[in-house]
Input
Amino acid sequence: MLLEFRYYNFLKFCFTYSILLLLFLCLQTLTFADVFSTDNNNTQESAIKNNLTNSINQNFIDTSDGANKNNSLHQNQTLNEQKIKIVAAGDFGCRPVAQNNIKQIEMQKPDIFLVLGDLSYEPSMDCWYNMTKGLDSKIKIAIGNHEDEEEKLKGGSKELKDSLLKHYDLPNSYYSFDYGNVHFLVLDTQLEFSIDVFKILEEEEEEGGEGEKYEKNKDDESNKPDAKYYTTTLKDLLAKHKIKGEIPPFHLINEEVLVKDVPVDTEQYRFVVNDLEKANNNSSIDWIVVMFHKPFYSSLTSHSQEYIMREKYQPLFDKYGVDIILQGHNHMYDRTLPLQFNPQNISNPIVDDSNNTNKFFNPEGSIYSVIGLGGRSSHIFLNQPDYVVKQHNGFGFLSIEINGKELDAKYYDIGYKCKEQKLKESDLEKGDFTIYEMSSCKNDKNKDDLQIIDHYSISK
Output
């Protein structure tokens, strides 16, 4: 009996011990699994964070080849949830005013810095590269006349243009890219016929120069050039395109000039058609921004509005829903109401004045701005078209913030006081309407903050 009792207690002890041992092992296994699961989650979270960082670092999505990259949708979805800050200005040079403007732009910490042409005004880009090295990775440029052979006597050249394309790793002088829910299209107005550039026909050209050479060859298919040159007067050229606006320099109106007939169906034009169509059909794109140097719309100053480029491209901007157009060349700031092309009279656009002049909701047409006060000089206004709602000739930049389907834009004056020149009749004849003597420009120490000159918003 005693033996049976001891045997029973022994079995009971073994059973209890086995249960406790099993529970202990289970708890150890569970704890290890939990720890493994936590480590795995941390690894996954780390991977997600790394992917997000990589997405932000690779946020410029080149669309110049006409096709979106495979990862563009993911990147756009990530960036669509972020506020995007864009700064734009053109016509800088490397003088102290421009240097100060660049410092102010750096302090804005933009995601993108759009430079609207005419960067250094020198035969080399060294001063520009050095001045903007803190913004280098954020810069996208448009080619201006001072980067091109149009200004050959002042240092412009093909080599200068090629240097910029190489430095900023650009596929061409016209290109496009996406950043978040914004599509950017950059044009090279140096590849287009410009009303701003005429060559007065000299006697030697009349007797055997370019005009006569092309006239003789025009019927010979083996010698026919891509673009035909012919002589005309500025007055007749404007009449041909039904242009009634004021065009400086006024002394050219009745002079015979040599002009180039640039066909509409150029490589750049075909690129723009395909690019805007795809951007318009891309459901992840909410905004389309176009930038170039010579302005389609501008208050009258030293340089004219590019009516013929307007006639060529604005119908495309209207068709594919371009929101804002950023321009340079004229050394001033101005902004229009939303405009559409008027085929009946290209001098007078169709104006959407149904919105408030500063707050727009789904406006009809595009808003055109000239931001040419990077630091080189400032120009005198000779008029204010009724569709221009803001004019300013103080140095600064345009800041644009995009948050989803809201766009908010401000033009900041960086606070320089300059001695104003008096406009003379001889200046009008030469087309030189500079308003400030640059050597007299001093930073206004009494202004601690940037002054907001213009402020407008667009909602969709």
Remarks:
- The domain at 65-193+263-459 is CATH 3.60.21.10 (Purple Acid Phosphatase; chain A, domain 2).
- Residues 26-58, 66-77, 203-226 have pLDDT under 50 and may be disordered.
